[in-house]
Design goal:
It is a single chain. The protein is of the alpha+beta class. The chain has a single domain (2-190), classed as Aminopeptidase (3-Layer(aba) Sandwich). The protein has helices at residues 2-8, 19-22, 48-54, 59-66, 79-82, 129-143, 158-166; strands at 29-33, 37-43, 89-95, 98-109, 112-120, 148-154, 170-171, 184-190. The longest helix is centred in the C-terminal third of the chain and has 15 residues, at 129-143. The radius of gyration is 16 Å and the shape is globular. Bound molecules: coenzyme A.
Length: 201
Amino acid sequence: MLAAVQQAHRVDAPGYTCPMARERRSCATTLRVGRLVSVHSRIAVPIDLEVVASWIGSKRECELWAGPGIPFPLEPSALPAQIDMPGAMNVALVDGLGLAAFGQAIPRSPGRAHLARVIVRPDVRRQGMGRALVEALVSRAGKAGFSLITLYVYRDNAAAATLYSHLGFVRAERPPGHSSSPDSWFLQRSIGPATVGASAQ
Ligand SMILES: CC(C)(COP(=O)(O)OP(=O)(O)OC[C@H]1O[C@@H](n2cnc3c(N)ncnc32)[C@H](O)[C@@H]1OP(=O)(O)O)[C@@H](O)C(=O)NCCC(=O)NCCS
């Protein structure tokens, strides 16, 4: 099932047209990940969430990915609305097997975008894909004019907390009105001019 869904998303699959190409925008930025594996960055589309849903096998994994607000089992057709896909910058990384990573940068206030729903396909974790995805999201937000990027991460999510820490995110005060959860940290990082476009070749 997973293989079938991923095949449908291969960039070289028959009939596949990159959504960015359909929009007459330059298709695919090539990124280099960890072991010099080439992946492409493109705008994520709702059908990508079918693949993402196939990577999430438990309520806890769902919570780590998307917080407490998304019901599990996931309903892929409901996900685009549940995660506010239309209001976000949605980024997909694609390798030779199809979708390899997904994440969002959501405009929250003037100058601030919030990173959310970051996930890497299980078979390519710990190879630099998460780093490439977050750098692509930060770059995208920077190009859109945001100067600050924030996120929540569960304290016991060692993989994600390490990833963000290595990318310069630090703990910060939650903005006014944000509910405080003892289970998660609020992190932030500023987006400097040097960061914008740094991940694109
Ligand atoms: C968190 C996640 C995106 C990381 O993706 P990844 O592709 O494995 O990350 P990378 O290979 O780019 O690793 C980035 C850094 O994090 C560290 N890291 C990754 N996984 C780790 C783990 N399980 N334990 C400790 N450190 C880890 C790496 O050592 C690496 O450090 P480096 O930059 O010094 O080399 C991935 O584990 C995932 O999809 N998890 C499920 C969804 C999730 O929890 N999302 C986070 C929402 S806040």
